[in-house]
């Protein structure tokens, strides 16, 4: 296909614009232009060096996340994902825990909806209307009717390590662990093949700190609430 036509227009690209000198920078200058966030998504906190840590929920491929931690962190993630334009669907047996968040988010628009366990209808996700399903279904969440797919991610919240955790961890692309008991930390360390130092650290993590694991990549992240988030959700806490 020709890049231009006799009228001077390029197919798919419009009219040819004015010719301008090319702009270039040296490699040293290019490094100074680097952004601290390396990908699109939700800023979930800062890493050990104080750099923003970003989690991309809105993807064209299925994406499973398991969080062994507190509902506070799950709610902050849901609120920030909603701010990016995603529809948040919460499957929960404790709707009262999520009601205030659902009412406050979206400025009156129903961007966060609550559903009983096992009662989540098909959502029809798309690139223009991505969906994040948050499964807050206790220690033994049943297999969900609505699963991850293109433009629909699933975040499963486990308050503690449970018998279903190994299965969920195995199928998850990303796993987050907050403070757990030493025995739970030892089990998680074996499942995720963590170094001994990181395994021992899991039982001493501060509120708001999560170890995020994706394959061999691991990163400790501190989630700090904004003033608005603190007013709605309170301060960071591991226990609900």
**Distance from first to last alpha carbon:** 62 Å
**Unreliable parts:** 1-23, 29-38
Strand order of the largest sheet: 7-6-8-9-5-10-11-12
Taken as a percent bin, the fraction of beta residues is: 15-25%
Reported for the largest beta sheet, the result is: 8 strands, mixed
- The Cα radius of gyration reads 21 Å
Based on CA inertia axes, which overall geometry fits?
A: globular
Helical region count? 7
Helices and strands, in N-to-C order? EEHEEEHEHEEEHEHHEEH
Total strand count, please? 12
Structural class, by secondary structure, is alpha/beta
What is the residue-averaged pLDDT? Answer: 85
Oligomer: single chain
Helix content: 25-40%
3D structure, described in words:
This protein has 240 residues and is α/β, with parallel strands linked by helices. Helices cover 25% and strands 24% of the residues. The longest helix has 13 residues, at 71-83. The radius of gyration is 21 Å and the shape is globular. Mean pLDDT is 85; it is low at 1-23 and 29-38.
